[in-house]
Here is the input.
Amino acid sequence: MKRILKETYGVWILIFYFLKWPYFLGYAYLYMTKGLQNWVLIAIWFFCLFLILQDFYKIARYGFGCKAQKGCGIDEGNISKE
Here is the structure.
């Protein structure tokens, strides 16, 4: 049971990682042009909006790439310098 929950969690992470922008823009287009309204679709749209805002916050907070001096919590001693 624990394995199934972990796999399901991983699948939903991948789905929303790759589909948040197309769904966010596509549903907004359908809502404005066709009047498509459904409370489940609207809830998913708001969830995608939350994920997009979270991404922008992380970029503003940590910058592009995670750095220890910005509080990301990486141990720089284990990173090899190339």
